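Quick one: structure tokens for this chain, please?
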Amino acid sequence: MNTNEYLMPTAAYIHIPFCRQRCFYCDFPIAVTGFQSLTLDGWVGEYVEAVCKEIAGQQYLGLPLSTVFFGGGTPSLLPIAGLEKILTTVDKHFGIATEAEISMEIDPGTFDQVQLQAYKNLGINRFSLGVQAFQDNLLTLCGRHHRRRDIDQAFTAIAKEDIKNWSLDLITGLPEQTAEDWHNSLNLALEAGPNHISCYDLVLEPQTVFDKWEQRGKLAVPPPERSADFYRHAQKALTQAGFHHYEISNYGRPGYQCRHNQIYWRNLPYYGFGMGATSYIDGKRFGRPRTRNGYYQWLNSWLNQGDKTPGETVSILENLLESLMLGLRLTAGVTWEQLPAISEDTKQTILNTLMSFGDRRWLEFYGRDNELLSPEKITTASVQRFCFSDPEGMLYSNQILSALFAALEED
């Protein structure tokens, strides 16, 4: 039984919002800095102090952290002293387990080998490199600040530091992206030698530059059929190269799957700190304001109140829907034990809905000995685990989840 509302968080996400410019597809809560070097004087240091106050003000729930993740934004723009101050505060207040995974997002053109050495000295042991594309024309179209030369310099710095636990991010479905572009990007990514690769499909988020261009008919994104082919090509190329496709967008060699992100996908509790960050504590989910001033106002109010776990309690139905939505992102899928306590009727509703897609081979059902069950053997008693087929079921996951949500909301 999934009792995540009673579990204590062992993961923390820390949002570092600074970016040189906003990418045309981005709707993350960021603070644009331009291209000057950042110091801890002024507003950058003010943000670091605010995050540290929030960390120190959070009720300690009893377990040291097993994962810490610096996301953004572009954390590699923050001066080393700022990262050190935040990590020191985290360790002092919560404790960081000896074998903890401490991850940090870094962008080409924002760090060098000396910085990587400093990050490692702070205890950061996993890096996520935001390449997104290898073609300068695509990077320009996306509003990215880096270029291919910056990517190559980043690879050189990572190799010289002999960093093993690093991930490379790519985006599919970019404007004007061709099949040849995607094929070349996958090959170049594999040649760089990361032990983890993330392939995200472009999403046109509301109010972004891309969204506005699309509404005006000025955005030439590949058609869905081509994006699906990109997905199939990535799944085949990366799995043949020895990567395990463990989540809808993520591939890792054995021992290099991201531990922190699996906390989210298993719908387990976690701390969140900083502008726009979300926490899931004591069965309550809460997001912070997405602007710096809004965040500072919220922080001052929160520090002065007695309730250190704001937010509304996630309902049983919401917990079930989130557990299904997040868990089915994993190629391992979901077991009944990972879901909140549900009735036999609800289990039957889930199976009936999923089985309605069965003839399309988008789903797989497994029994007690991890045996793949044939349709006539599928019952609430026989099924122990269910998942999307890879890659076809993953491609149609949104369609399946929509039907599943509709059926459960009516149940």
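The chain is about 40% helix and 20% strand.
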